[in-house]
Every structure is written in structure tokens, then in C-alpha cells.
Write a structure and sequence with these properties.
Blueprint lengths: L54 E4 L8 E7 L6 E7 L24 E7 L5 E7 L9 E8 L9 E2 L3 E4 L14 E3 L5 E6 L4 E8 L6 E9 L5 E6 L5 E6 L4 E6 L7 E8 L4 E6 L5 E6 L4 E6 L5 E6 H6 L18 E6 L11 E6 L3 E2 L5 H4 L3 H4 L1 E9 L9 E3 L18 E11 L2 E9 L16 E9 L4 E2 L5 E2 H12 L13 E6 L5 E6 L4 E7 L5 E4 L7 E2 L10 E6 L4 E6 L4 E6 L4 E7 L9 H11 L28 E4 L2 E4 L30 H5 L32 E2 L10 H6 L2 E4 L5 E4 L5 H9 L12 H13 L3 H4 L15 H4 L4 H4 L1 E2 L17 E2 L1 E2 L2 E2 L64 H4 L5 H4 L10 H13 L25
Antiparallel strand pairs: 1-2, 2-5, 3-4, 3-6, 6-7, 6-8, 9-10, 10-11, 11-12, 13-14, 14-15, 15-16, 17-18, 18-19, 19-20, 21-22, 22-24, 23-24, 24-25, 26-27, 27-28, 28-29, 28-30, 31-32, 32-33, 33-34, 33-35, 36-37, 37-38, 38-39, 40-41, 42-43, 43-44, 45-46, 47-48
Length: 979
Amino acid sequence: MMSVPRTTCSVLLALALAACQPDAVQGDLDFDAVVPAEVPEDLELAPPAYRSAFLLSLNSNLEPGQTSFYLATGANPGETVFLVGGTNGQGSGPCPPQIGGLCLDVRSAVSILGSGVANASGFAVIPYTVPANMVPGTELSTQAVIQRGPGGANSIKTPARTDAVSAAVRTTPTSGNALAMNAAGTVAVAANRTAGEITVISLTLGANPSTGNVVATFDLAGEEPWNVVIGNDNDTAYVTLRASKQVARITGLSTGSPQLDTERADVDGDPTGIAISPTGQLLYVSNWSAGTVSVVDAQSLATVADVDLNQALIDTGTLGPSVSQSRKGLAHPSAVLVTNDGDGSDQDEWVYVTEFFSQDDPSADPGVLGDAYFDEGRQGFVYRFHATVGTMSPAIPLGSTADTGFLDSTGGVTGCFPNQLSALAQDGTRVYAAGMCASPRGPAGGGGVNAKTKVHPTLYAIDTVGLAEVPAERVTLTEAFQDLYDTRGRADDATRRFPLLPNAMAFAPNTHVLYVAGYGSDALFRVRYNANHTLNEVGSSLADFINVGGFSTSGKLPIGVAIDAANHALVLNENTRNLSFANLGTQSVVNAIPSASPVAPDEVVENTGRRFFVTGLARWSLNGQGWNSCEGCHPNGLTDNVTWFFPAGPRQTVSLDGSWDQDAGVQRVFNWTAILDEIGDFENNTRGISGGVGAFVSSTTLSTSSRIVFDGTHVLGSESTDASQVNLNGSMDELVLTGVPGVDATGAPTTVQSVLEDFLDIDDYVKTVRSPDAPVVDGAAALAGAAIFQANNCQGCHGGTNWTVSERFYTPSTANNAVGGLLETTTYSRGTLPAALNPAAASGPAPLKGGGTIQCVLRGVGTFPAAGTTGIAPAGVTVSERKENMSSTANGLTGFNPPSLLGVVAGAPYFHAGNARTLEEVFDPTFEPHHQALSANFVPTPTDIANLTAFLTWIDDDATTLSTDVAGIDTILCPDVFP
């Protein structure tokens, strides 16, 4: 325990405790006699961005005979903050004349327990030593006061708080996921994300088999309960509510009648990760869309600090020169972990937070790396700050991988960079971050070998002493499990499985064995380290992995894992809404029980579509082994912010929250060059990028021979369509719903119809994808930005019900989409739109569909070079306008399909190839043709850019949309009704 000098007794007042030390102030509130305690140097560091409210929190357990630390925020620098308290509870207390008669909220008798001097940030540390004979369970009520004004007339006080003296000490680090279990293994709390429910589950882990039952269900529909931790009392749970920007508290876990507290903590946009300090006094909540971590007092649920990770990201130098001052939405913190050295104090602990998205690596030289630059030119980050003072360490970089262990179809070595960092765990001096290592360089399509090269679930090891990643201890899980299967002679079929989308993990207590949940592969994967942190093995002698989906009561889409000291593991499954019980001794699932209410009839299709979107099993990736999925590039239906090399060229992943408007009545034309118009068109990604059988099939047999050939060629042995149905040709929906003319496997004429409707289910899911919640921004700045946005006619491309003029104005069908159909024979005129903005129609009428795109939605905004393959970008950004073969020039001369502004707060980098690193850089002079597209003289000032950025980050599902009207200019070229 850290030693702290004492001046006054700093103990309780006369509480009828015979052992009270002689220097105690008993019943005397003489503020002038108290000398502030000296604070250890490591507690005098200035915290970042602490709130101005005068609040009191406790940052270490109240343990008999030990020194605890109270923290006060919101004082003026240099002021003395007094801690007063007693054990008679909160209520009407004395009104001491020294503080102008300000009445305390702690009942008499009340004593001064200690004091501290506020630092430059208004942050005061007040040490307090609990009497050695204080009985655990005794409650101490406290509040902080500051003497101000003549005779104390302007004195202020914090709200009162009550804390119990306890011998309970948390001795392990915490990092919440969707499931938490109490220390005794008798109660679990589940955040059932898609069900919108928090459930408390009574456990019987010693039974044969282990089992449990739901004892309480709290329906928070629409609020998205996400991650959970349990307090030190093992009787209280805290749950992040992603959609409502709050943290909920549940009490009485062990009583059999848990209660949802009416009080909640208000945090910021999309609270995701959560961890709790060793004392249980502080919660750390990552606000994903705001770029901050809220430090919440677990008792009062007041936010006592906001730790700014946006500035920490700026300080890495990866964002370029466009951003010099912090603002919301630059960083996207996800998983949170707080360390624990076992001494019962928060004062010497640290908080680690993953940056979800990869960032540029300025040290990567494309001249040296060549095309490998596009696999290795980015890096990941993990933030670190002091658990009580908030002092930020430099962000810890996670490096790229030069060789994933998989060659592409040309025999080339593939690399990857860390992305989607979703989970944290600690073992000794190592903190492990789990993510998806992205390998975007072409070639990409064709399935087979290339399907194994795109994404790689990876574990990154951080040395907590040296504060750096240890590359030699990095584990590329695809490579490690491939080696396991090859060594064991496993057939290359669905009996192999890879940990696609590692979103939760936990160490078995008192071991170096880590269990990783594969969200997209319905399994728990074992990773065993040596004591020196090197990899010992993956899998085990008993099983290659624990198949959560293989039990009689299947578990699909695992999102949470909790493990006790007796080798029992719990796995929470999102899609099947159940809890799987695994025996780690036998490496098998032994039972499963419901964890939430069953899927309602009107939610079945959406829930099923979500599973198809996430999973890499069965028909959805190569051999059903979990190589990739839609979710692999669209986490939570949004974007992975990676620029992938596709047949059309480099393409930044588009967030799907802008696919449909809020009424699901207006759909955007898909992809950057408007080359797709139905969700079913992405079947080629399933077959090519992921290597799966796909869902447009003539039978449910998991064989490529069941695939329908839908490109208009007749292939003997397969059902084939007479005309192409994919992309903008024909209709993939018709191929499912009614069938289209074609031939059977023998070549005889028939109506070809898919036996599965899976992509229709996915479409229903995509309609529900929620845009990230806007962070709390400066309202005046946002309003000013909205005025600038409209004054310069930006709504001419980014207005309308879906924040884009891109609307599918027709129903895909053979009549409309076929070669020679109405879309190809109907023309449009550019009208008054400036010539450069729609080159396809610049010289006269042009067909609505031409060159494989819906031409009337394209806008040329100067982000594509007139010649060559060197992309348009500011200094420090490398863009290569080449197709996936890494040689042919990319498409883009006729313009791009305007993206929706929904989710723009989570969309960096921007433009089709990630040309701009930040929203500020979008307005760089390099991109003048873009922001001057409909306002020729618009040259934004720094203030304009700051206001525009505030407005753009404010846009979410609740934002009021803007009309596309621009005076004197026809901004919409496509017809309103067609045909």
C-alpha cells in the first residue's frame, strides 16, 4: 500500500470507537486548523479534460488500517478541499460558521477527515486512513467542501456519498464483455444485444451438467445493452447501453430479486467497453463515436472525468496536419481493461483502451515496400492512462504483419495491418489485444487461395513494463490454427474452423491459457502461452476448438465469455439467445439454457439475416471454415474503414447504415460507382472474396456444384440463367422470388429459381442497421456548420431523406435491368448541373444505365485523376488508382456515387480510396473541386471547417434531413418515377 503523510488524524470523528487515535478531530469542524496533506508525486500529475462540476469520488477500498484516496474535481487551482464525514448516514447535517453556514448533507456527528490542495486542473487528492478496528460493513458518509468568500459566504459542497468499509478486494484485471459472472460462480449477468434485454441468471456450476435459470429480465428494447461488469460486492452489475448513451446499474444480484436502478450514468456516443477499478469505485466507459472514456463514480453514477483519446490520437502524428486541436469523433475507443496488482488500491493502476480502427503509419515507405505498402502501411493503437489521475501515456502502436503465412493466387506473400481491435485481456506483464488483421491488396476474387488472404484474426501482445508491442509474441490465429490442422492431418473441410471476429476473450484463472470467442465461427478457441509469454500451442489434445454450435442446443454468434477457477466456461450467444456451458477439462459444451426472451415472430427474418451477415460457416466462406463474412468488413453493419482493391479499383468500405432511409422506403444505389442495386448482388463477394458456396443455389447441398450460374453463360452440370442477373443486370431478387428463364444441369430449358432466400433476410437486417449516435458537440458550432453547408449547396449531393441524392428510382427486374432494357434505352440530360459533375451526360443525353453503372447518380468531384494511376490526395497520403490485378487503371473517370452522410463520424478516412484522413482534410485545397462543386467560390476558413466538422459529426438517425434543392441547378438527374 502506498504510504501517504498524515497531518491531522484523518480518521473518523468520535464514533464511540475506543481506538480512535489521539490526533483525531472529534466533533470539531475547525477548518482553519487543518493542514492539507502532502500528496505523493505520482498523484500530482495533471489530468486531461476533467469536468468542472464539483464532485467527490473514492478511488481505493475503505479497508481497516489502510489509507484510501478520495478525489475531488472542479475546484479552482490552489484551493484547499476539505473532506468531512460521519457514520450516521446522509441527511440534514450541521451548518458550520466557517463555511458561511452552508449546511452539510451528512448527519452529525461530523468530523473533518482530511484535505487536499487542487492542482492546475482543479483536481484534489485527499488521503484518508480508516481506523484499524473499523468493522467491515460500517458505512461512512462523506462530502467535500471548499471555503470561499468573506466569512465563507460563497462556500460550496459536493453531493454526499456513502461507502461501506470492506475487506473485499478485487485481485484480477477487468475488461467487460457481453457476459459477466460473480466471483463465487453463482450468478451471471448477460447483455443480450439484439434482444434488447439484460438478464440475471442463477448458476449451478457444480451440477452434472452445469446449468442455470433466468431469475430476472429487464427489457431495454431499443437501448442496446452491450457490455457488463460486476462490482466488488458481487451483488451489483453495470451495463453499457449503446443506443441511449448511458450505463445502467442492477442491484441485488444474489437476492433472487434483482432490481434495475432508476438512476443511470449519462456518458457519450455509443458507449461500448466497460471496466471497473480494483476498488470497485470507478467505472471506465469507452464512448466509441465520441473518442472519449467516461470515468464514472460507481456509487453516484456521476461522470467525474472525461479522458480525451482524440488528443492522444492526434499526438501520434497519424492524422496529418489538418487537425491540431482535439474534437469529438477522431478516435474510436472500443475495449477497455484496467490493471490490478492485487494491493486493493486504484492509485497504481492503469487503463488500457483499444483504438478500434487502423491508422496511417507515416514510417511506412511505399517506395521501399512497393505494393506491399497497401498491406503494411497502417498500424493499430492501444491507449493507456492512469486509473485515478487520468494522465495519458503515448499511445502504444501495434505493427503490421509482413507475412501472414498465406500466399495469394499469384504466389505473392501477403501482409496485413491491425484493425477492428475488439477485446483485451491481461496475463502478468502482458496485455493482449484481439482484432482482425486486414490484407486489402489484390488479387481478391476467385475464392480458393485468395479467400484465405483477406482477414486474419490476430492477438497482439503489449509489454506493460516497456509499454510497447512485442512483435515476436504476436499470434496470427489463422496461421496458427492452419498449422495445427495440417499437423494433425485434419481434412480440409468444415471440421476445420478459424476464430473469425474475435470479439471476447478471457484467461482461465491462474493459468496462461486464453479462450477467444469466434463471433463468426460459433466456437471458443484455446490459446496457451508459456510463462515467458511465448506461444505454447493453440487448440488442445482433446479438441481443436470448443464447438459452441455443435451441442444439441446450438449456440450461434457468441458475444461473451466468462470463466471461473473450477474450469467452467460460460458463452453467451447473440443469435440463438442462449447461454452455453462448457467444461474446460473436457473441452466440450455440456449444456445450454435460454438467456433471453425468444425471437418474436416479426423479428425472425431480421435475426436470421443478421446471422447470415456475420457467420463464416456453412455456405458463407471457403469450406465453411470461418475465413470471412459480410461482418468481416462491416462491423455492426457499418464500416471497417479499409480501402480494399476490387475489380473496379481501390474502394473504401461503405457503411451500410446509409443503405435505406429511416422508413426503409428509399434505397441508395450501392457501391462507389453505382454498380449494384440489390443486396443479392453481393453474392459474388460471398463466392469470391470469402470463397463460400453462396446462397443462390439449386439445392441446399454445401457444394459448389449447387451454385446457380447467373451470369448468362450455360454451364453443363449446373443450373444456369439465360441472361445475367447480377450487378445491374436482371434481378437477383427475381431469381429468388419468381425464378428466371434458364437451363437445368443437363442443358434443358427450365425456370431457374434459388431454393434459398438468405439474401432477402440479409436485406431485412440491413434495413435495421443503426447509424452511430452523434457525440455531444458544440450546438452553436453545429448550427453554424449547417448554415455553411447549405449556403454552399452541399445538400445538392448530400441532401434528401438518406443524406444522399443517390436513390434507386426503379424496381430491379428483367424489363428494367436486362441488356437492352428500359434503363439502357431511357436517357437523361445533365440540364443545368455543371458539366464536370456528370461527365457521362456532358455532351448530350446519356442512358440511365451505361458502362455497368447507373450513370445519372454519378458525380465527378475531382477525386479521380484525369490520367495515370497516382491518386489525388494531400501530401502524406498514398492512393493508387489500380484494379485488384494491381496493374489496370481503376474506374472513376465518370464520377462517384455520393455516399450518405449517416455515420460519417465513424467513416474516416474519406472518399472512395481513403484519400482524406479526417473530415478537416476533406476540405483541404487538394479537394477544392469537391467542396466547390456547387459553390464555385467556396474557400472555407479554419473556422468554417471547424463548424462544418461539428455539423457533420452531429448527423445520425435523429438528425433532421435537408432538402436537395439548390437555386437554379438541377441536382437530381435520375427520374422520380420509373418507368
